[in-house]
């Protein structure tokens, strides 16, 4: 007796296994595509989050390493040059006020200019040498921190720092600078420049517009609203003429008083 082959069953079994495999393979590819899509979305969101958390300062130009000592954006439209004495009580009171105002007005930066007054010597020049040497060793941020520290600890009016009090950041580089006369040259040069321009009192502000070079002198500590009005005046005058002609009236108003000034 010849057995009849079960061809239908074999054919059915033969075709059933590939359908199951095709289904599993389709699920695997779908899952892989979903994972890849999820990874791409995560990567985009992570990049956007990193950009949104990036500090604003990173887009600005980096501060110069040394002199002139600048606080604020180095590419600001207007620079406030302050002629100051580290023993001047009015300069000490004005320091945090001007610092806060510069922080609120990024279109303006602040440049320090030493003017040690004779009535405050030798303490005034000693303080100036200290902050210059700290800045030479540590850069812009170190310089401004040193100025803030001196104003916070000096007894003022030429009395200088308390006996035995030393700056906490006296590194070997700072001590080497203090032992030399490297810091004396810029202090003397700035004091001579101030005298040449008729600036004899502290604090005195000189505003300078970057594009035209025009300047405006403001004696005494200037309050925020008045300082902002002076900046607007300087910028608007710079827009009217690229540079002042010899026949044009100057915006400079030299100070004629001597010593500390107050308002």
Any chance you could write out the topology, listing elements then pairs?
Elements: H1 7-52, E1 70-71, E2 78-84, H2 89-104, E3 108-114, H3 123-138, H4 140-153, H5 172-179, H6 184-196, E4 201-202, E5 204-209, E6 215-219, H7 224-240, E7 259-260
Parallel strand pairs: 2-3, 4-7
Antiparallel strand pairs: 1-3, 2-5, 5-6
Question: Would you kindly provide a written description of the structure presented here, covering whatever features stand out?
Answer:
It is a single chain. This protein is of the alpha/beta class and 263 residues long. 49% of the residues lie in helices and 12% in strands. The protein is built from seven helices and seven strands; from the N terminus they run αββαβααααβββαβ. It has helices at 7-52, 89-104, 123-138, 140-153, 172-179, 184-196, 224-240; strands spanning 70-71, 78-84, 108-114, 201-202, 204-209, 215-219, 259-260. The protein has a five-stranded mixed sheet, with helices on both faces. α3 runs antiparallel to α4 (140-153) and α3 packs across α5 (172-179). The longest helix is centred in the first third of the chain and has 46 residues, at 7-52. The N and C termini lie far apart (128 Å). Residues 7-16, 44-60 and 241-258 have low confidence and may be disordered.
